[in-house]
Design goal:
Layout (H helix, E strand, L loop, with lengths): L8 H11 L4 H15 L8 H13 L10 H14 L2 H5 L2 H4 L5 H9 L23 H14 L1
Helix pairs in contact: 1-2, 3-4
C-alpha cells in the first residue's frame, strides 16, 4: 500500500490538473492561473470538489445536464477531454476564457449519454407453467429401451 501525503494547496491543484492531462509548461501555467484566480475561493476541506465546481461552471454550456446529473456530465467531459488530448488543444484557454475547441464540442455531442425513458409498468397476463412429471419421463425412457 502506498501513502500519498500532499503538503500544500498547490500540490492538490497540481495533482488535479495533471489528472486532466496537463503536463510540463501547460501544467505550470494552469496551476499558476488557478492559484492566482481561485485560491481564496477553494474550500480547503474538499479542494477537489471545489475544483470540480469550477470546471463544471466552465463546461456546463457545452453539456446539457437533465435532472441535475452534474457528476455524470463532469465524468463525460473529463473522459472526452483526456481521450482527445484536450489539455494540449485547449490549454489554458479552458480555464481563462471557458472555451473548448469546436472539435471537442462535437465529440461531446457525439458521446452524450441519454437518460433512459421512465419505466411504464403494465399488468402481465398469467401464463400456464408446465412442470415435468419425473416418473412419466422415466417411463418413456424405459419404454423406448423395451421396444429396442
Amino acid at each position: 500500500m502506498v501513502a500519498l501525503k500532499v503538503q500544500s494547496l498547490e500540490g492538490i491543484v497540481t495533482a488535479y490538473v495533471q489528472s486532466l492531462g496537463y503536463c510540463r509548461e501547460s501544467l505550470q501555467k494552469t496551476v499558476s492561473f488557478l492559484m492566482e484566480t481561485y485560491a481564496e475561493k477553494l474550500n480547503h476541506e474538499d479542494v477537489i470538489a471545489s475544483l470540480d465546481e469550477i470546471l463544471y461552471a466552465i463546461v456546463k454550456k457545452y453539456i446539457p445536464t437533465p435532472r441535475g446529473e452534474k457528476t455524470q456530465a463532469l465524468a463525460l467531459f473529463k473522459a472526452v477531454f483526456l481521450l482527445n488530448d484536450g489539455a494540449e488543444t485547449c490549454g489554458l484557454s479552458l480555464w481563462e476564457k471557458g472555451e473548448i475547441t469546436s472539435e471537442l464540442q462535437q465529440l461531446l455531442k457525439d458521446n452524450m449519454l441519454q437518460s433512459a425513458p421512465q419505466i411504464k409498468a403494465t399488468k402481465m397476463e398469467a401464463q400456464k407453467i408446465e412442470t415435468i412429471d419425473f416418473f412419466a419421463s422415466l417411463n418413456k425412457i424405459f419404454h423406448m429401451f423395451r421396444k429396442g
